[in-house]
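Two proteins, back to back. First:
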Amino acid sequence: MSRAPLRAVIFDIGRVLVKVDVARATAGLSQGVSLGPEELWRVLQSDPRWNDWQEGRISPPDWHLHVVRRIGSPLSFNEFRDAWNRALDPEPLQSDDLFVTLARSKRLALLSNTDPLHIAHLEATQSFFRHFPARARIYSCSVAASKPSPVIFQAALRAVQTRAEEAVFIDDILEYVEAARSLGLAGIHYQSPAQLRSELRFLDPSLEL
């Protein structure tokens, strides 16, 4: 069965639009503590409050206090924030013409599991955000839900005012792509800029990417 015409393109951010190097962040966060960078990251992701942090139920100052007390870190809030944001590479993964071309005929949205510190840093440093209206920037910490929950995908579809069958979701994590597909969206498991453009052209041959 053929799909409905493509009307909306929904992007993950990390490792799709922005390079992520967790080791750069944990190297800074682990200064002055007994945990190594890799062990520190495992501790953070398994922390009982990790989902609260990702889904906006804990503020940045409270997350800072929680983490430094847990790992015995001497970092101030500003030092912690700067180390946390070192995970995000300033060099974007996609060239600007991709968004310019897509925006001529598609509604664009962002859909990311992320936190307030990363959002503030990214929106202040990455130029591609200008192609995404504020209402179409769907962050887990803003909607109190994270991928693969249907709640966050539904929030993105409402933002672009599009039916699932008319949208595609792009993510580097296959589990999240499959979650989108289970809701009726097309899904692209991101591998490279060239592969992304090829799959978008397959969904809509009229795109000159």
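And the second protein:
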Amino acid sequence: MQFAHLTRRELITFVVGAAAAWPLAARAQQPPLPVIGYLSARSPQDTTHLLEAFRRGLSEAGFVEGQNVTIEYRWALGQQDRLPGLAADLVRRPVTVLVSTGGESAALAAKAATSTIPIAFIIGGDPVRLGLAASYNRPGGNATGINILTNSLEPKRLELLRELVPQASTIGALLDPSFPAYEGQLRDMRQAARALDLQVQELRASTDAEIDLAFETVARQRIAAVTVAAGPFFDTRRDKLVALAARHAVPTMYHFREFPAAGGLMSYGIDSRVTYRQIGVYAGGILKGEKPAELPILQPTKFELVINLKTAKTLGLKVPLTLQVAADEVIE
């Protein structure tokens, strides 16, 4: 363009237009933000505090949602069969890293959806046995994460519940048959029950109606206590389970602290907030270039017993001093 032939008005128009275009051009040259695909078997309502912990871990790794990373959320709401479709949707997005939470179903769906996108998972079972990794120290593929050992703690929960209700000859075990760990959970419970000279009455539930029926069975058969097996479906029905246990006045053991905090009797397991913070750190590290194949799969070293004494009193239970002393938290 020959500026000598422009009129003064044309020159001003050209300069103003060019100045307005500069920031647009600069923005266009900026690379897009990396995207985390967050796949959960649970629901946003029951994991608000866990999402806060996840974001805290991300920030420790240098990433803040909306500033230098975008997060796409997909929630199965406790319905395991929705996970494959949700995982495939995130892979099509596509995402930079895929974070799966809420147990084996989510991790397996993520792994089935991609063999190339890095995956950071939280599960309650053995990732090597599930085919998610070659080993704990060197996973070797595109997936790594944390085994929170939740499923392997079912015998300990049964033992603690028996200590609180020593007169019980039969304890109900509420399990979700659609959960991949179901058979192993039931097997471990039955084996532990034999050692405690107990009978285990299996109660199956994968729907709200089946949960209602399970507690009706407990009342009808006068089952002395119930242990709720770990699983994302039950996590999304926390308030319902606690309310039914109170209505039927049945002592009930759970797997996460959130249950006694909501009015349930007791729980034994990990502090989930620690785990979700750590998976945020892992996701951030992968965004920086770390390889899942070389990031060791972690396991918790601390488990917490939480007892709600107010609920125990309502149920007419006297909590043994040994349990109170052993408890990491007593809610009064």
